[in-house]
């Protein structure tokens, strides 16, 4: 093929060369015929004028047009020349005929012939001279045209090389961009792949975890476990423990950090369920009606007020110094997305000012170089000069103070740029804000490509609006310090600040589109390149544009990457508070993009006007309402002060008034019911408190809250872990008991020994009756012995079950559970005690009283003592209670579950029932103890307040009495101590019965002040008692919930344990019954063989509860088969007998190869091994399948010659696919042409030799013999002759010619080859 291609190319090249030669000859003839001296002079003058003329380029264009026209003319001339060649060829033939005629005419005269030759020679010389002259003129013209064409080619080559360089640069940039995009795509793909792989691993872990616990819990997974697993799964945490967290080092490894995060997540969820009383801590039906309010509003108000006092005074956010502009926005997008060009066009149609950060930085630096002065500096200097003499200062400081803000910012930027540093975001934002401040009020502004980063957006919004979103969120979190109590009046939503922009437009283009725009710009610049004269005219402006384009070339990739990295954060920033982002597809022409942005601008201006008009109306309405309602709060305050005046405060003695004052007071009208403390209508007491109180109580409350939450989380974590341990332990004892029941027994040894003895009995004793009786007795003995083994195993299993029940795991687990719930009760009691102290200190401080020193110890709830060690009381920080079984006299109400358990209890589980009742009794006693402790604390606090009131309610004028009256009163009190209580009771409503001194006159202001103080104290007391009662109710409810939950969990744990114990008893009984039944089956089989007097040949297998007769194992061998009788046949008429046929078969088998086809199959398999492996053929199975296929074909089919491989494939393709695939491969291989031709020759020879009288079957046999028989020289005919002689004479005579034909044809075939 390659040679043919080369020959075709050579022929094509020769044809092209021949055509070029013909063209040159035709051009030479044409130019020679049409050229003259005049035309040559004209061409030379034109060329000289062309080189000297200034219109060089025009001439070149004209010359190109002339060349095109010349090409057309040349094409016409070429066609005309071809016609001329035809005519010339005809003329040449005519001349040749003439020559022949002349030659004939001149044969007679040799002289005439010689003269004719000379004449023809002269004629030929003239033609040669004429052609040489034409060729020289053509050379001159070609030289001139070549010089001109060389000049054009040089310029075209330079332009072409520049274009090639530009295209190569574009390709390099595209490859670089594609490489960056590929890397980003790989990073994104790897990130998403890792996320998906992690999710799949978590799904797999969840499924395996569920399957594990289905096995542990017998397909009864608790709801709490599934809830915890789903929480871990949804939060992306591993379900299986990575590393233990029991011993935490100083530096946590990564695995322990993950485990700590998992633990904190589950602890938080458990605490939320406990706090909100949902999920596992959902209220039972009997407690739903008793549910107290979820929040203590009074405590929340107290904490909120303390936090406000402790925090520094919050300054209201400064209003923006910027006036309300017509429109504020920014235009963002990638490099070359059309921002600047579009904004320049929009600036002509709208009253907006476009601010570009690059331009502003350059203007600021230029202002610094121009030494731009501040506007306000001159009057300040004049005033200073008038007031005081000039103070000598440094020139630099004076210049810096007098510079404008823009110049100062430009100075900082210039210093950073000189050092090679970039301008920080804060300085850029200051430059931008300074430019915005200088814009007139009625003119809008648009930022061109700014902000570019998330940090710039944050700083710009803070500078324009005065708000910082992060600080607002942090302050909101600080004010909400308490999670246990919330002030409903202070829970106000944090108002999100408005955005600094009215709209943000994104011109969205792809990376490739941006690169194509950059290439278009550079190509346009290249196509409109300027000459050296033009460069001198344009000057520095042109150089500056080139520098900008060069920077654009170098930085385009980095700018695109920077935008892609920063845009996700910017998109989120401009979309979250209020969506001001508008996306526009900028991959369109400039005019369409301009129209789109023009419509958006018009729409945003209308929106801005619509927003400002209702705002102005609302402000006007608010001002009007404020003027009208100025007196309303005063009236409300006076009414609030007047209504409680008429009420006589309980527990306080009214102050006496003068008769004149008493006549002025009018009776109080009936008022509506007063609001309850803590309700929405209740007005809280907000009297001033000392500054030291918040600084002490706030950390104290944080300590209370943190200790309470950490204790609850720790206890709930232990409960969660104990649940896993309980499930694992119950599964462990179930599996261990099942393994104990499946321990090996030795019954099979006795069975085997009995079977051996039974089979060894002599044959003559089988029918003896005494022997049968003896054998039955042996069977009975074997049965009794096996039953004894079963009974012993049953007793051992029962003892193992009792050991498991009595190992005190259940008691220890119940004790640990009870201690966890006692710890929860202790946490609730501690929280109540600490909250009570905090409220007491707060209200005493507000009442201008000194906090009391509480010398009472905290209430400690006792825990259950799990071990029997004796510990002294001095070593105990928490009291311990020993576990004592309940006495039968105590009566405890039993639940339905306990009644069910009681029905299921047997003697071994009575101790479990009694211990459960004792534990429940202990739980009830502890709950009552905690509940009574809280009630006593509240009662003691109320009693203490009453005592203080009694002391304060003594007559105020006792201090003004004389010392004599004071001494008499003191002596009278000492003499009459029993009457003190009665006097105190009367003091609540009336003054004490002491002889009154002369009345002291008090002014109305003093009386009003005394009444106000009494009302304030009464309100403080009422609010304090309401807060305490709420805390008491909530704590009592929590304690009752803990008690109910504890009893439920204890009963559930006991029920689980009892179910396991009962399941063990069930397994034990079933095991014993099955073993007894298997022994009975063995006995029946043995008695059957005894009665039938037959030996048991197959092994009797008895293991635990399984009995069967093993047919694979025989105890003694089978008896030999009976001897075959001799044959009865006789040989008749040369018919072979069966014995003769067997001998003949043996001889054939001896003569036949033992392994027919094995070698050939192995050779083919080794040769075609790669092909077979590609077809998924098992090569190791080919030999085996070949042997099995042969055996099956020989056994199934009698006439194998009629079989075809298609038929074999249809039957055995599913059974022997590997060897049949090899056969198909061999059959698919084409035979060689020589082999096929040899076969056809043999057919022709055979038919011609047989005179076409042979049938098709005989022809097939003959061809097989001829084609596959060995060489005649190596053939041993003795065996064939021996077989031939054994046949009948008639058959021998018939087949004689065939053998001759075979030998002859074979010899002929060999000779041909």
Automatic annotation (TrEMBL):
Keywords: Cell projection, Cilium, Flagellum. It holds the Pfam family SPEF2_D5. Residues 978-989 have a biased composition (Basic residues). The keyword Lipid metabolism does not apply. Residues 1287-1298 have a biased composition (Polar residues). Residues 105-238 form the CPC1/SPEF2 domain. GO terms for cellular component: manchette; sperm midpiece. Residues 376-387, 609-643, 950-962 have a biased composition (Basic and acidic residues). One of its GO terms (biological process) is sperm axoneme assembly. PANTHER family: KPL2-RELATED (PTHR14919), SPERM FLAGELLAR PROTEIN 2 (PTHR14919:SF0). This is Sperm flagellar protein 2. It comes from Sciurus carolinensis (Eastern gray squirrel). The lineage of its organism: Eukaryota, Metazoa, Chordata, Craniata, Vertebrata.
């Amino acid at each position: 093929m390659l040679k043919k291609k080369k020959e075709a190319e050579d022929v094509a090249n020769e044809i092209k060369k021949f055509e070029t030669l013909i063209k040159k000859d035709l051009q030479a003839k044409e130019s020679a015929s049409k050229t003259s001296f005049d035309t040559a002079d004209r061409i030379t003058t034109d060329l000289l004028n062309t080189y000297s003329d200034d219109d060089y380029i025009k001439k070149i264009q004209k010359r190109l047009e002339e060349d095109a026209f010349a090409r057309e003319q040349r094409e016409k001339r070429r066609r005309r020349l071809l016609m001329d060649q035809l005519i010339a060829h005809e003329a040449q033939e005519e001349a040749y005929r003439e020559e022949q005629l002349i030659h004939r005419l001149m044969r007679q005269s040799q002289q005439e012939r010689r003269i004719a030759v000379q004449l023809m020679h002269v004629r030929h010389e003239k033609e040669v001279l004429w052609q040489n002259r034409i060729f020289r003129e053509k050379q001159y013209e070609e030289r001139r045209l070549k010089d001109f064409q060389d000049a054009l080619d040089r310029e075209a080559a330079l332009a072409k090389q520049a274009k090639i360089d530009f295209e190569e640069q574009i390709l390099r940039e595209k490859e670089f961009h594609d490489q960056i995009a590929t890397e980003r795509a790989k990073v994104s793909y790897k990130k998403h792949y890792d996320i998906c792989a992690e999710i799949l691993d978590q799904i797999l872990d969840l499924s395996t975890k569920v399957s594990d616990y289905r096995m542990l819990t017998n397909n009864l997974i608790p709801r709490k476990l599934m809830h915890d697993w789903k929480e871990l799964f949804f939060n992306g945490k591993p379900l299986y423990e990575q590393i233990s967290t029991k011993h935490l080092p100083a530096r946590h490894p990564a695995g322990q950090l993950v485990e700590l995060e998992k633990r904190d997540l589950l602890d938080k969820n458990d605490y939320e369920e406990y706090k909100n009383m949902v999920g596992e801590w959902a209220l039972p039906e009997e407690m739903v009606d008793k549910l107290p309010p979820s929040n203590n509003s009074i405590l929340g108000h107290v904490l909120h007020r303390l936090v406000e006092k402790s925090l520094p005074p919050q300054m209201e956010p400064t209003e923006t110094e910027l006036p309300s502009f017509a429109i504020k926005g920014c235009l963002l997008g990638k490099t070359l997305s059309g921002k600047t060009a579009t904004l320049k066009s929009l600036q002509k149609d709208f009253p907006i000012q476009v601010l570009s950060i690059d331009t502003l930085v350059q203007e600021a630096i230029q202002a610094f170089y121009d030494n731009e002065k501040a506007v306000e500096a001159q009057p300040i200097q004049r005033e200073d000069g008038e007031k005081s003499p000039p103070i000598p200062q440094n020139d630099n400081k004076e210049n810096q103070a007098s510079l404008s803000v823009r110049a100062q910012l430009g100075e900082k930027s210039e210093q950073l740029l000189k050092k090679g540093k970039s301008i920080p975001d804060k300085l850029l934002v200051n430059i931008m804000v300074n430019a915005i401040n200088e814009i007139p009020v009625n003119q809008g502004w648009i930022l061109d490509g700014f902000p570019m980063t998330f940090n710039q957006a944050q700083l710009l919004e803070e500078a324009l609006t005065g708000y910082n979103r992060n600080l607002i969120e942090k302050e909101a979190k600080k004010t909400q310090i308490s999670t246990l109590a919330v002030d409903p009046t202070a829970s106000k939503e944090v108002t999100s600040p408005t955005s600094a922009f009215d709209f943000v437009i994104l011109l969205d283009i792809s990376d490739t589109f941006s690169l194509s725009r950059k290439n278009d710009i550079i190509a346009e610049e290249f196509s409109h390149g300027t000459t050296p004269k033009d460069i001198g005219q344009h000057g520095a402006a042109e150089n500056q544009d080139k520098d900008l384009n060069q920077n654009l070339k170098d930085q385009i990739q980095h700018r695109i990457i920077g935008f892609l990295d920063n845009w996700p954060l910017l998109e989120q920033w401009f979309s979250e508070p209020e969506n001001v982002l508008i996306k526009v597809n900028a991959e369109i022409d400039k005019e369409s993009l301009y129209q789109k942005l023009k419509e958006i601008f018009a729409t945003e201006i209308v929106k801005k006007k619509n927003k400002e008009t209702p705002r102005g109306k609302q402000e006007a309405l608010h001002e009007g309402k404020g003027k009208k309602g100025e007196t309303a709060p005063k009236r409300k305050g006076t009414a609030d002060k007047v209504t409680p005046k008429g009420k006589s405060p309980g527990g306080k003695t009214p102050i006496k008034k003068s008769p004149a004052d008493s006549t002025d007071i009018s009776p109080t009208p009936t008022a509506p019911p007063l609001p309850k403390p803590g309700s929405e209508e209740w007005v809280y007491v907000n009297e001033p408190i000392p500054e030291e109180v918040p600084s002490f109580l706030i950390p104290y409350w944080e300590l209370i809250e943190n200790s309470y939450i950490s204790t609850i989380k720790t206890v709930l974590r232990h409960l969660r872990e104990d649940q896993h341990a309980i499930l694992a332990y119950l599964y462990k004892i179930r599996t261990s008991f099942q393994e104990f029941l499946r321990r090996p027994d030795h019954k099979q040894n006795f069975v085997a020994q009995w079977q051996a003895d039974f089979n060894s009995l002599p044959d003559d004793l089988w029918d003896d009756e005494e022997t049968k009786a003896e054998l039955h007795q042996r069977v009975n003995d074997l049965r009794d012995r096996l039953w004894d083994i079963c009974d012993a195993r049953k007793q051992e299993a029962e003892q193992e079950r009792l050991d498991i029940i009595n190992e005190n795991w259940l008691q220890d687990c119940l004790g640990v559970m009870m201690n966890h719930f006692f710890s929860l009760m202790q946490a609730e009691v501690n929280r109540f005690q600490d909250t009570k102290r905090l409220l007491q200190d707060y209200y005493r401080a507000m009442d201008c009283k000194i906090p009391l020193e509480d010398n009472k110890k905290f209430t400690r709830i006792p825990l259950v003592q799990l071990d029997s060690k004796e510990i002294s009381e001095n070593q105990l920080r928490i009291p311990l209670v020993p576990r004592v079984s309940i006495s039968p006299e105590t009566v405890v109400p039993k639940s339905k579950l306990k009644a069910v358990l009681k029905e299921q209890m047997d003697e071994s589980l009575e101790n479990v029932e009694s211990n459960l009742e004792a534990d429940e009794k202990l739980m009830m006693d502890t709950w009552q103890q905690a509940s009574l402790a809280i009630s006593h604390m509240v009662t003691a606090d109320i009693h203490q307040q009453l005592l203080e009131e009694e002391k304060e309610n003594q007559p105020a004028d006792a201090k003004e009495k004389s010392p004599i009256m004071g001494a008499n009163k003191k002596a009278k009190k000492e003499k009459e101590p029993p009457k003190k209580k009665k006097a105190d009771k009367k003091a609540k409503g009336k003054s004490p019965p002491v002889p009154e001194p002369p009345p002291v006159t008090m002014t109305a202001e003093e009386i009003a002040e005394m009444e106000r103080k009494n009302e304030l104290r009464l309100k403080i007391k009422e609010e304090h008692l309401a807060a305490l009662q709420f805390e008491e109710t909530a704590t009592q409810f929590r304690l009752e919930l803990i008690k109910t939950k504890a009893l439920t969990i204890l009963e559930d744990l006991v029920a689980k344990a009892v179910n396991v114990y009962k399941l063990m008893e069930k397994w034990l009984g079933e095991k014993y019954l099955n073993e007894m039944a298997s022994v009975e089956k063995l006995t029946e089989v043995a008695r059957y063989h005894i009665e039938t007097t037959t030996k048991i040949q197959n092994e009797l297998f008895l293991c635990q509860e399984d009995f069967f007769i093993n047919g694979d194992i025989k105890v003694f061998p089978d008896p030999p088969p009976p001897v075959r009788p001799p044959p009865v046949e006789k040989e008749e008429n040369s018919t072979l007998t069966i014995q003769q046929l067997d001998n003949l078969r043996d001889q054939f088998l001896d003569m036949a190869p033992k392994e027919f086809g094995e070698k050939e199959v192995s050779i083919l398999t080794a040769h075609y091994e790669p092909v077979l492996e590609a077809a998924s053929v098992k090569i190791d199975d080919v030999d085996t399948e070949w042997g099995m296929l042969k055996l099956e074909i020989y056994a199934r089919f009698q006439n194998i010659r009629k079989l075809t491989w298609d038929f074999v494939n249809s039957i055995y393709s599913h059974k022997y696919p590997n060897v049949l695939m090899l056969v198909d491969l061999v059959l698919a291989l084409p035979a060689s042409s020589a082999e096929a031709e040899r076969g056809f020759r043999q057919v022709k020879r055979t038919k011609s030799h047989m005179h076409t009288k042979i049938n098709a079957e005989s022809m097939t046999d003959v061809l097989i013999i001829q084609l596959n028989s060995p060489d005649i020289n190596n053939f041993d005919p003795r065996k064939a002759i021996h077989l031939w002689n054994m046949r009948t004479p008639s058959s021998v005579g018939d087949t004689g010619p065939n053998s001759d034909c075979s030998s002859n044809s074979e010899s002929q075939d060999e000779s041909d080859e």
